[in-house]
Design goal:
Strand content: under 5%
Largest sheet: 2 strands, parallel
Radius of gyration: 23 Å
Helix content: over 70%
Structural class: mainly alpha
CATH architecture of the domain at 1-61: Orthogonal Bundle
Order of helices and strands: HHHHHHHHEHHEHHHHHH
Strand order of the largest sheet: 1-2
Number of helices: 16
CATH superfamily of the domain at 1-61: lambda repressor-like DNA-binding domains
Number of strands: 2
CATH class of the domain at 1-61: Mainly Alpha
Length: about 300
């Protein structure tokens, strides 16, 4: 049995044991020693099939049902943690807390999900001012073992997502290294160990666009955003699309291209209302109105009149 799979299955057994209100001692007595079971949990050795069978029956389940449910649990776990991250990223703290209640951090079975979850908890604590930006930076660097992580060309989606976070940290001094690595993953998504590499590429494009904008490389912002929009359109997803149009509007505005700036603001607005996420609408309305000193709704009405209504 593959080592990672064995460890994750053992963690799932421990979660089921907890849900069945059994102690570890009660669960494993007569089947395997607690010390050996904890070796399975740490991934120090594989859990044999006969032990899988006996532990399943100790729980009152058929072994094949446990395996089927284990596979489903891994998918559900990923979905739940992704929803938790998205809620935190959108500053929807009420939703984030509800998702977090459903996640039992101690019993996360997938190593990548555990990394993703830990990072999201750190983000939530930073946004809620429980920890400072400096502490968040320290935790992030330690979590992904930077800079040693750069020695590996192939990374998981969670590692890339966390790595890209460093681009937005003001006191992090090695941003160019991160930018170079993210551009590598955009050009070679086969280096991303993930079932959804397209979404990771979109995230890289979004964070690189923001980084290049801060560095006033506006033509590069336009190139990256258009690449992101093209990929989103091809995949038929809204993921980060509002950011691409918003960053485009900033870049075109800085370059004095009023026609493209207005079009980008309008498309950002249209994307937000098509997705109909109230938190995102409020967030980007505040950003756009503060950036351009406009009423967004009035701007859009005027844009429609002069662009689409023929006199």
């Amino acid at each position: 049995m593959e080592a990672t799979y064995s460890k994750e299955l053992s963690l799932y057994f421990d979660k089921l044991r907890y849900e069945r209100n059994m102690t570890q001692e009660t669960f494993v007595t007569g089947i395997v020693s607690i010390r050996q079971f904890r070796r399975y949990l740490k991934g120090e050795c594989d859990i044999p099939q006969d032990i899988i069978n006996q532990l399943s029956r100790r729980l009152g389940f058929k072994p094949e049902y446990v395996i089927w449910d284990f596979e489903s649990e891994r998918i559900n776990e990923t979905t739940l943690i992704t929803n938790f991250y998205n809620a935190v990223a959108n500053r929807d703290f009420n939703a984030a807390e509800e998702y977090n209640k459903q996640i039992k951090g101690k019993y996360i079975i997938d190593d990548v999900n555990r990394l993703y979850y830990t990072h999201t908890v750190n983000m939530l604590e930073m946004y809620k001012k429980i920890i400072s930006d400096d502490v968040f930076l320290e935790k992030t660097i330690k979590l992904i073992d930077f800079p040693n992580i750069l020695k590996s060309r192939m990374l998981s989606n969670a590692e890339i997502m966390i790595l890209s976070t460093l681009l937005s940290m003001s006191k992090f001094t090695e941003k160019e290294l991160i930018a170079e690595r993210l551009k590598l993953y955009i050009s070679q998504p086969n280096l991303i160990v993930s079932g959804h590499s397209e979404q990771v590429v979109l995230l890289c494009l979004q964070r690189l666009s923001q980084y290049e904008g801060i560095n006033e490389n506006y033509n590069e912002v336009i190139r990256l955003c258009n690449q992101g929009i093209e990929l989103s359109t091809r995949l038929k997803v809204y993921y980060l699309l509002e950011y691409f149009y918003y960053f485009l509007s900033l870049a075109y505005h800085k370059l004095g291209n009023i026609k493209k700036y207005e079009e980008s603001v309008f498309r950002c607005y249209a994307t937000l209302y098509a997705e109909n996420n109230e938190k995102k609408i409020a967030k980007f309305t505040d950003l756009i109105e503060d950036d351009y000193k406009i009423s967004l709704h009035e701007f859009v009405l005027d844009y429609i009149k002069k662009t689409y209504i023929k006199h």
